[in-house]
Amino acid sequence: MVTLDGKVVLITGGARGQGAAEAELVAAMGARVVIGDLLEAEGVELAGVLNARHGTGTAHFAGLDVRSEESWQRIVADALARYGRLDGLVNNAGIARPGTILDTAPSLWDELMDVNARGSFLGIRAVAPAMIEQGGGAIVNIGSAVALAGYHAVAYGVSKWAVRGLTKAAALEFAASGIRVNAVHPGVVDTPMVAANPRQRDAVTAVTPAGRPAVPADIAQVVIFLLSDGASYLTGADIPVDGGFSSGAAALQIARATGVL
């Protein structure tokens, strides 16, 4: 059975959607959770729910702008002062925007890189010293199935490729310190961010072999395993949680068009 008893986990973008599902499951598995987000009202409410459900002190909300090194330093210092240790980081915060190369303004490129790639980089830099000092930890970067192939939304796709590369580099750098770093690559997930673009959601779902979007708990279950001691020999891994999308969406289209499936 997977357990996180005694662990302390920081989750970015944890106030709603996929991050909230991760926070809920982390708490249910026995850990204390720090919810980092810009959405203060939703984050405070979620922390209150988790404290009522699992005991006072289980969850704490702290404001976090993942683009800011100072914001990262504050939330890590807060977590250490409050709980005395930090065993896990889930770099979950992210944004998505459409745009081909010719349609994408440099400012949009910078926006997605700042949140998706820089945010994850700053997070690892912020938590690594504490994890090294205590003898190890686990970091889970949330990438995307589009980081496993090319994608027409260039800034989003490339930012998630950067997360994938960062995962590999960090896994190499910190393995000797007992810190594991892995990446989870979701396909289409039924979250508020995805719901904002129903046309895109439906198009991806149509070529997903599982035939449905993921629910946030589908992703959270895998994240929980990677945070647990059960994944102690797993680092530097890319784990698609995409209903088979990365197995060959184009091949599925061809098979359907030719009557094979």
TrEMBL record:
Keywords for this protein: Oxidoreductase
Entry annotated with the keyword Protease: no
Cleaved signal peptide residues: none
Highest taxon listed in the record's lineage: Bacteria
An example molecular function term from Gene Ontology annotations: oxidoreductase activity
Gene3D superfamilies on file: NAD(P)-binding Rossmann-like Domain (3.40.50.720)
InterPro entries for the chain: NAD(P)-bd_dom_sf, SDR_fam
Family: Belongs to the short-chain dehydrogenases/reductases (SDR) family.
Protein name as annotated: 3-alpha-hydroxysteroid dehydrogenase
Organism: Acrocarpospora pleiomorpha
